[in-house]
Amino acid sequence: MSKRSLPLWMRDAELSPAAPGPKKRVLSESKINEIAAAVIEDVDAKSKVDNENQDQVDTPRRRLRSNFKIPDEIPKREPTAVQLNIEDVPFIDYRGEIRYYTDMRDMAFACDQLVQWVDKRSPEDHPVVPIAFDLEWPFSFQTGPGRTALMQLCVETNVCYLFQLSCLKKLPAAVLQLLTHPRVQLHGINVKNDFRKLARDFPEANADLLIERCVDLGGWYNRIHGSCGVWSMERLVLQVCRQRVDKNKKVRMSKWHVLPLSDDQKLYAAVDVYSNYFAS
């Protein structure tokens, strides 16, 4: 250990001559060095003990950090419901055109026109053409769901197509050509069940092919937001668009297979399929 210089008061005691009066004890340099070494050793010992105590205090914190494990998978969260006063939320107001068809030839012509419209759209700008899809059928608490009565399509926000299928025994080929067009992608809420229903009532429709190429908007929303909820159209429109769908029970449970449909039925059906287009 290197020798440290003595403090001034210790050097003065050794170098200054003895003053008259009572005899004072003067320490030799060797004795002073011995005392200084002892003091330094004592300080070093205390410092070592303090460091050991500090290590003991810090050890649990290091152990906690080393034991921490990041979870392999973050659990999916349930979708957060929109906190709104439902009475203050406006209804969807559809003011576009409603094209209603009850004749098989008129339906075929309309679908031919739509196929041409799809083909004319640039494949570079529109490789996929989305079309909203929905069905309506009568329901009885005694006999259950009836045969598919109405098909609704929405290709743009300003026009909806209503095809009265209850007057048909078979779907026109042009309708099937539109639904299975390689660039058309049908979408809607719980749309897969609609395709199964359509195929049961009209066997010429291929449910598996339609399901393979469709987009269910509830699943689409869950993938984007990391949620896992089951969505109705009303809830999804409220969540995404902050608007309500007018689900008038009298109209919803009406006789969709009876021709002609009333204006209220036509508007209800148009709003349903427009909501699928609007929320996508």
From TrEMBL:
Entry keyword Phosphoprotein: yes
GO cellular component: nucleus
GO terms (BP aspect): nucleobase-containing compound metabolic process
Domain 3'-5' exonuclease: 125-274
UniProt subcellular location: Nucleus
Positions of region (Disordered): 43-63
Pfam family, one: DNA_pol_A_exo1
Keywords, comma-separated and alphabetical: Exonuclease, Hydrolase, Magnesium, Metal-binding, Nuclease, Nucleus, Phosphoprotein
GO function term, MF aspect, one: metal ion binding
Chief localization: nucleus
Family: Belongs to the WRNexo family.
Function according to Swiss-Prot or TrEMBL: Has exonuclease activity on both single-stranded and duplex templates bearing overhangs, but not blunt ended duplex DNA, and cleaves in a 3'-5' direction. Essential for the formation of DNA replication focal centers. Has an important role in maintaining genome stability.
Descriptive protein name: 3'-5' exonuclease
